[in-house]
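FW: tagging you since you asked about this chain on Friday. Here's the raw sequence from the shared folder, copied in full. Didn't touch anything.
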Amino acid sequence: MIKIENVSYTYQSKYQTMKAVKNATYSFEPGVMYAITGRSGSGKSTLLSLLAGLDLPTSGTICVDGEDIRSINRDVYRMKKASMIYQAFHLFPLLTVMENVTFPMEIQKLPGNQAKERAASLLEKVGLKEDTWRKFPHMLSGGEQQRAAVARAVAAGGRIILADEPTGNLDSENEEVIIELLKGLAHEDGFVVIVVTHNDTVAEAADAVLKMSDGELSEVRNDCKK
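HL: got it, structure written out here
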């Protein structure tokens, strides 16, 4: 579980100070797919960055499974607990699809054969056939690249998926595939799935919808609450 309490984040430059996130409080539960919506500049991507441990809040606390994110090794946190998925896929261009998915497991010193077996299982799960596994990312369609990115995120072994506009570069057919994959990770595998999106289709598919407006976070809908 991820619990944020009175989280604020302030950008400071030579010319101005801007409070991008203002006193956000919320609890993200496993088994639920969350969508965070809002206009550009509303603070939603900044909040996702804080949840990923890429930045620390200016004030307030972020706790993951009861541990304050300030007190843990954030590199290890992103390696073993939380994985990012991006709009632009961010696959390693000089690695094959299989190598991209085995990479996080190799960092964690999983034996090569086990890493390849798990990668093959994950690639099959996201619907990538074996004839794509030895291809490089540029040889795949956008939908195939995003499926590979989902497989790589899961391969890391954590239970938190943080996705920034994961369907932004996809057509409607592939958009639906990625939505179903993310929902499956939440509902079937017990992941915490948090998606930042402008897309109404993604928001409608989520179990809970949050909105960022001028840095403030509010809950719009939560179908998991009785």
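FW: Residues 97 and 133 are 5 Å apart (CA to CA).
HL: agreed, and The chain is about 35% helix and 30% strand.
FW: great, closing this out.
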